[in-house]
Design a protein that fits this description.
single chain
Length: 129
């Protein structure tokens, strides 16, 4: 059983890596092209996490990808700044709150309830970037 769990995590990690590379290719020639690979991975991770949490429709996945790319761009810009850790944390938390509001606009009421119930866990995960 333990091996199956590790294999499952490996598959998820490889899938996210492939998605991150595909996203980087997809956004060549756009404002996103100079983002760090970690920023594309951040966006892909957030999409995978939200989909696992609330089971997004295909249309919602497309909208979430757009939302995540906007916020990945902002997170990437923050990562390039020189600022004290508390200021950086405050900026990231602010962006998290805005991103959650954007998600809530596209989710159905049941999905929003699930999102709200897990918001603190998602906020902690957000700060790992």
């Amino acid at each position: 059983m333990r091996y199956l769990r590790h294999a499952g995590l490996l598959v998820i990690t490889l899938t996210i890596s492939v998605l991150s590379f595909a996203q980087a290719e997809k956004y060549q020639g756009t404002m996103f092209e100079n983002m760090a690979p970690a920023s594309f991975e951040w966006a892909a991770n957030r999409l995978a996490t939200l989909d696992q949490l609330v089971t997004l429709t295909d249309a919602q996945k497309e909208e979430v990808e757009v939302i995540n790319m906007r916020y990945a761009y902002r997170m990437d810009a923050l990562a390039r700044q020189t600022m004290d850790p508390e200021t950086l944390k405050a900026h990231r938390e602010g962006l998290f709150d805005y991103r959650m509001e954007d998600y809530k606009r596209i989710l159905n009421p049941e999905q929003v309830a699930i999102l709200v119930a897990h918001e603190e866990d998602l906020k902690e995960d957000n700060l790992l970037y």
